[in-house]
Amino acid sequence: MEGSLKYLLYVPDAYNRTPTKWPLVLFLHGAGERGDDLELVKKHGPPKLIAQGREFPAIIVSPQCPKEAWWPDHVAALEALLDEIVARYRVDEDRIYVTGLSMGGFGTWALAFDQPQRFAALGVICGRGDPAKAALLEHVPIWVFHGAKDQTVPLKDSQDMVEALQAAGGSPKFTVYPDAGHDSWTRTYEGPAFWEWLFAQRRR
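The chain above was modelled as a monomer; its predicted structure follows.
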């Protein structure tokens, strides 16, 4: 499916005080935040934290998936959005990251499979990808998160991707929260470890 996407955009306060290029994070929300109300996108993840006053050392773009649609069907629109942001802002193209939760995790895998050379790192939270395509991403730093008690997206979906990446020669990080259900994103995004790791990665 084609079409432009509405989105939230965060630009660091320091952007206009320095001529440097900045990392870019693309955040893909879950199925519950689809529609035409951008306020819904602030329910989880980076947009939630930004709304609470948290600052990030990166440009963050958080598009909204149309109602009844699915992120993997909008890969072309996501790529066009990234092209637009790169054209309009000083983006360090060796530090473009994608992270998403649930349906957004599905979209993270789909987007990376389509442009495997574009991204510096992926953060995939309770998503599902195609293990047959894992070899495309063996060179990409990836951190996968999942709740062991997830009843919405089975833990096995992440396990299968991690095992396929390892078999292809990759070395993904994999965190399983033993007591978490579907919400394996709150502690991932709110803690410092994921962000410190993400911003340390550069495109290989």
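Residues 44 and 187 are 11 Å apart (CA to CA).
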